[in-house]
């Protein structure tokens, strides 16, 4: 299982709305994430807008590709894009992944 951590930056003036939008993620989006291999997926948001994402998957590139091919993802990414700073394209294309340097089971 591959563990993936990524960063994005939410605009400070949109923090409250971003939090609200993630209280009720569309059921079809949740289903698509699960079906395409996003397991143990979490988002963490700091007050300055730093967003940290974590997930586990068998193959992150294949998982991203499968998700990008869903209609619900296209709609979700279009709605979420205005929330982010320094983004060229869709949020799911602008994730800055981090190298894992330590893991304790």
UniProtKB/TrEMBL annotation:
GO MF annotations in UniProt: racemase and epimerase activity, acting on carbohydrates and derivatives
Single Gene Ontology BP annotation: rhamnose catabolic process
Protein name per Swiss-Prot or TrEMBL: L-rhamnose mutarotase
Species this chain originates from: Nonomuraea cypriaca
């Amino acid at each position: 299982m591959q563990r993936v951590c990524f960063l994005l930056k939410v605009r400070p003036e949109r923090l409250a709305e971003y939090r609200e939008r993630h209280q009720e993620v569309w059921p079809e989006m949740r289903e698509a994430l699960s079906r395409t291999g996003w397991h143990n997926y979490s988002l963490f948001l700091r007050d300055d807008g730093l967003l940290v994402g974590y997930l586990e998957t068998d193959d992150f590139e294949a998982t991203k590709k499968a998700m990008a091919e869903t209609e619900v993802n296209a709609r979700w990414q279009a709605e979420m894009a205005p929330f982010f700073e320094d983004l060229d394209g869709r949020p799911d294309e602008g994730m800055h992944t981090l190298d894992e340097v330590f893991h304790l089971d």
